[in-house]
Amino acid sequence: MAQVICPFCLKPHDFALARTCEICADNPVPDEYIAEYDRVPPLWLLTIGFSRHGKTTYLAALTLVLENMSNVWEGMYDNAYDQATMTAIRQMWREAMQGEIVQKTDVTTPRPLLIGLYGLPEVGSRSLVMYDVAGEIFDSINEVQAYLPALKFVGTTWFLVSLQDLENDQEGRSLTDLFSVYRKGMRSLQADLQGRNLIVVYTKADQVAFTPEIEEYLMLDPYQALTLPDATLPPSEDFSLQEYRQGMEQVSNLLEEYTRQRVKKGRAFINMVKAEGMNLYFSVVSALGQSPDVSSSRLRERARRYRVLDPFLWALTLQATETTRTLRIIVDGSSTSGSAYQALPAVWERLADYGEVTTYQLGDSQAKSQPGQKPPTAPPDPPRKRLIGPILEHTPPDARVLVFATGPIADLADFASTSWRDRLVLVQTEPGQPDAWPHTVTYRAGDDPTPLVNTLLRL
Amino acid sequence: MTAPTFILDRAGFPMLRVEAIGAYIHWYPLTKIQAEYFLCSTTDSQFDEKWYDDLLYLNARVTPTEISDNNYWNAFLTGVLPHEAQQLAQWAQCSIPTLDEWLTAYRALKQQPELSDAFASMGDLSERTRTLLERVDAASRNVAAHEGLTRTRADQLLMRLGVMEWVDCPNSRVRWGGMGKPAKRFRGGLFSPDHGQPHELLDPETDRASYYGLRLIRRA
Questions:
Q1: pLDDT tens-digit map of B10-29
Q2: Domain total in chain B
């Protein structure tokens, strides 16, 4: 079994040793989530938005639509992994059937919805781990830090924004404000934004005067009637995820242009996101197809839900193309390498949060631990010459490497003018004459590994 | 004239097909980088940290980008004993050439002009390997010019101006001899491979000679 990420603390945990995560003893991780982890990998989703911008309503609609997709996609079914998720879904369903809009999210530590989604077309099965976070915490940078370990972990984030509510915002907030809070939060968590996916989801689309092309796209949603009784639905074989994504890409481009031209500080927002190296996409949904009655918070007609599936399908297809970070730790294998092994465990543990870590020893081209396995705890016997070339020359070109050494590496200088210059961090665990390497860090057992790990991830 | 044929060895270094011996032969004597590949894959405890340090003491290492007319022999592995050379050869799925094979290849290559644009034909070389090959070529070309040598293909392969190379002499009084001609600044001497007789050490099995390296062949 691969290393399983606990959905509550978002730390890797070896559930073969204990079925509960020691950090999250009060939140037992569902057995099915653990047992199916390899076959049904997680799809992590995190929603961010100002309060009252329709985030929770949208998530309720999405849950309903997903539950009903088995009527359309042959072989697809869903399964709530735990009682908390089941209760939440039933509540959402009840509220939707009765036409009441769901209540605003409480400001608490996020507990994700855990739903197994099986037989999704073209991608197979996924464990949906979906965090619905109260909008208020994004009003304050301190609360972001306190409540959101998920922020750092999840690669795809949804910004749920109601343009109508943004326009009428009493405090004059804009998309750039939302992104600034997010960015500050991520920086304070020492998390890198580069390469992450940001999907801007415009909610309450029925209230906004979009361009005719965007409105047409909304209204042509083949699944808009999915949650209505006796609805006529398109046959399963008509669905192609690739073709559907092409449509989403086209409307994303239209929405980006709309944002640039028509949304307050929209151009600046796009520039900010792209300057961080994030992948930016746009989506538009109407979770209810209408505005609820102001006095009663009830709908006046049965809800048609437009393009509710799009943000989910974006996340699904983006995750399918995401590559896990390939990380290598190469640790000294010489006769004087003891201090490197004292420093190694904490760094390995932290680095494993960010990708698949394989461990080697200098002077040995055979891997000593694979992703999910703990690194070696002692130098080899007999000791090995500090050599790195045969390891580096068989390391994938996208990998980043952390090298723990207690003295000079005989052949490291061979790579000083190659692309390794910007993909390798040399960690000196003892004072002395270090190799002349551009990214060299001194680190000792007991030091905080965060700056070291961030140095590597920022390369 | 047929185009030269190359293969790459386990460390990604080129070997040239020499029809006169029906085998591939390393383009250069074995480099330290190739030996380091061996060190990183062997589990034989005799090839430990100290073993390599002792060899580096005899002939220091040079990084490929620093190779020049004054040090290009530092790129090659020397100081190895014959039985160690055999283990290296076995790992590389190659052999140490016999005296006859070495001389036949030398004489055949000496009749041929330098290969122009040789590195382009060698296949998928790593950046480091390519740098080493190119810089050794440039440095040895300068030294050959300085010594008034007309370079042939044998010289391009550093069968002269390289290191002394172990050869297997199964019918001789001493099994292990040397062929080649080290660069003067690496090791002075009047030995020439053109005489057809191997260079002999007094105690080749135990004395590490700082100028003795090896070149391997793959018979096929």
A1: 999 999 999 999 999 999 99
A2: 1
Average pLDDT of chain A to the nearest whole number:
82
Calpha distance A26→A362 (Å, rounded): 42
Domain count, chain A: 3
- Computed over every residue of chain B, the mean pLDDT equals 94
User: Which of the listed residues A289, A304, A321 is the one where a domain comes to its end?
Assistant: A321
Do residues A14 and A68 share a domain? no
A418: contact with B, CB 8 A cutoff: yes
- Residue at B1 is within a domain: no
Shortest CA distance to A158 belongs to which of A101, A98, A206, A199? A199
Q: What is the ipTM of this complex?
A: 0.93
- Window A:300-319, CB contacts with B under 8 Å: none
How would you classify the pairing of strands A197-203 and A156-162? parallel
CA distance B74 to chain A (A): 13
Q: For residue A5, what are the domain limits?
A: 1-36
CA pair distance A330, A456, nearest whole angstrom: 13
3-state secondary structure of A106: coil
CB contact, 8 Å: A416 with chain B? yes
**pLDDT, position A323:** 55
DSSP A6: P
- Confidence class for position A47, pLDDT limits 50, 70, 90: confident
Distances (CA, A) of A307 to A178, A191, A216: 23, 31, 11
According to the 3-state scheme, what is the secondary structure of A185-242?
HHHHCCCCCCCCEEEEEEECHHHCCCCHHHHHHHHCCCCCCCCCCCCCCCCHHHCCHH
